[in-house]
Amino acid sequence: MYDPTLPFQPLYRSLLSVPAINRRALEKAIALECDGVILDLEDSVAPEKKEEARDNLRHFFSEPRSQAQRIFIRINALTSEFAEDDMALVLALHPHGVVIPKVESVADLEKASSFLETARADLQIWAMMETARGILNAGLIAAAREGIAPRLSGFVVGLNDLRKETRVLPRSGRTYLVPWLMQVVLAARAHGLAVIDSVFNDFRDGETFEQECIQGREMGFDGKMLIHPAQIEPANRHFGPSEAEIAEARAIAAAFSKPENTHLNVINLDGRMIERLHLEEAEKLLAQLQQIETRKTSP
Ligand SMILES: CC(C)(COP(=O)(O)OP(=O)(O)OC[C@H]1O[C@@H](n2cnc3c(N)ncnc32)[C@H](O)[C@@H]1OP(=O)(O)O)[C@@H](O)C(=O)NCCC(=O)NCCSC(=O)C[C@H](O)C(=O)O
Ligand SMILES: [Mg+2]
């Protein structure tokens, strides 16, 4: 069963992007059931509105808000004239993490880390994987977590930028993009990062969105970056454990807890070979379920 001693793994099923310039959306975001919000200072804010958007975030952080949501700030590109002021804001507001757009190299992470030298150790860096160079270097970038960028905690794919640069057309099933998506997942998993699938722009097309969530989950993503509140419920559903997975995890945990199986590493469960690695997976899934249940009841 659920073991409270397992390390705390935050939920990242649904990360909603909220334009920092949109006060109404910022107000609404607090009460939404997404696992996290990405307060966006980059693409959704016009250049002349950046300072007003930063002011909105100062106000947002001064208000009481849900402890259940992870809060990220997406800054402008490190090469832009806005990055320094954005990072100063991040230092002042202490979100859970800062999302760096268009990360292409380890040097980008070094630069981001240097801005945050005086920040609390738990302030995370998340990197957007959304350029051709970024995807090519995904393994090296992820490995920086074990070297010069220990704050690095997650990747978020950005397909709008990646499609623009590579000219891959938006087609059903994301056929030509799948190898690059899998490269990002592989790099993230090799170095213990969370990994989040890209936004889906047609927020009124719920059916295709659900298919993309199913695909993202099958590819190994932890969750999806979202642009609209209507996408939260399906993302939470598809990136959370299904009824069948819960039943299976419980059956595996129950089987290994039987006295006759205590000293066995491999057992026969209804005609299938089950090993202790499956028990670890089952325990992780049940821990995630427990967190989801707790979220429903916590303010
Ligand atoms: C896309 C939108 C501009 C649509 O907004 P709107 O026209 O207001 O839609 P609705 O009328 O359907 O909205 C219904 C209510 O929901 C609120 N709302 C909408 N979106 C959000 C949101 N993101 N967060 C919180 N609340 C939201 C509206 O205010 C309405 O409320 P009410 O007034 O009570 O009825 C809009 O959805 C939007 O701006 N979305 C986010 C855009 C964004 O953040 N873009 C940047 C991230 S995308 C990205 O990162 C791409 C990546 O870099 C890449 O390369 O791929
Ligand atoms: Mg982008």
UniProtKB/TrEMBL annotation:
The keyword Magnesium applies. InterPro entries: Aldolase/citrate-lyase_domain (IPR005000), Citrate_lyase_beta/mcl1/mcl2 (IPR011206), Pyrv/PenolPyrv_kinase-like_dom (IPR015813), Pyrv_kinase-like_dom_sf (IPR040442). Keywords: Lyase, Magnesium, Metal-binding. Its cofactor is Mg(2+). Residues 13-229 form the HpcH/HpaI aldolase/citrate lyase domain. One of its GO terms (molecular function) is lyase activity. Belongs to the HpcH/HpaI aldolase family. This is HpcH/HpaI aldolase/citrate lyase family protein. It comes from Rhizobium helianthi. The lineage of its organism: Bacteria, Pseudomonadati, Pseudomonadota, Alphaproteobacteria, Hyphomicrobiales.
